[in-house]
Specification:
Largest sheet: 6 strands, antiparallel
Distance between the termini: 36 Å
Shape: globular
Strand order of the largest sheet: 11-10-9-8-7-12
Helix content: 10-25%
Oligomer: single chain
């Protein structure tokens, strides 16, 4: 069972400097601008690249909206490379929702966006870790583990009251790669990619 990091801890960390960025709302782009943000992690000859497409707009803050993203995530793609050659691409099995934007437009967005990615090194190998969340305290959370070739070994995606997707065992995968379970479930050494700072 995954011990979810709290959304309060995520919010506090995203206010701090990460490895190459200080997350903040994109204020200089025109409203409704669509842009891509590219983030990556490298381990020896392997590389994971995350391309997230955003709309520079926020979900209108009204009582019946189910997500409150400050920058609206439209899609997210994961690509895996070995020696510079693409070996696998995929998307996480995340639901989509239609919400009302601050410019009074109906926009179809991801229900859950990966907010942090990490490389977990063990005595027998390494794993990529993802943590995602929806835009409100009662929204969904997700946790995933990929191997270096891009195979999704574990993925848990749920709200407090409903499970959307759950497969794999993070404890078993930790044992296989020699990573302590407490390290797999921690936020140590992760790179925070949401909210985006500057479009790339």
């Amino acid at each position: 069972m995954v011990n979810w990091p709290s959304k309060d801890s995520i919010a506090k960390i995203t206010e701090q400097d990460s490895t190459d960025q200080k997350p903040k709302v994109i204020e200089k782009l025109p409203l409704d601008t669509i842009f891509d943000r590219i983030d990556s992690l490298v381990f020896q000859q392997y590389k994971m690249v995350v391309i997230t497409t955003y709309m520079n707009n926020s979900v209108l803050d009204i009582i019946d909206q189910i997500n409150q993203f400050v920058i609206m995530p439209l899609k997210q793609k994961f690509s895996f490379y070995k020696k510079g050659i693409l070996i696998h691409s995929c998307k996480l099995p995340i639901n989509r929702v239609t919400v009302l934007s601050s410019s009074n437009k109906m926009v179809n967005i991801l229900d859950n966006v990966v907010m942090s990615i990490g490389l977990l090194k063990g005595t027998k190998g390494a794993l990529y870790q993802t943590y995602g969340a929806g835009g409100c305290n009662a929204c969904s959370e997700s946790f995933g583990l990929f191997d270096l070739n891009g195979n999704l070994l574990c993925f848990h995606y749920n709200t407090r009251s409903k499970v959307y997707v759950s497969f794999g065992n993070d404890s078993i995968e930790g044992v296989k790669t020699g990573i302590p379970l407490e390290k797999i479930q921690s936020l140590d050494s992760l790179k925070y990619i949401y909210p985006p700072s500057n479009p790339k």
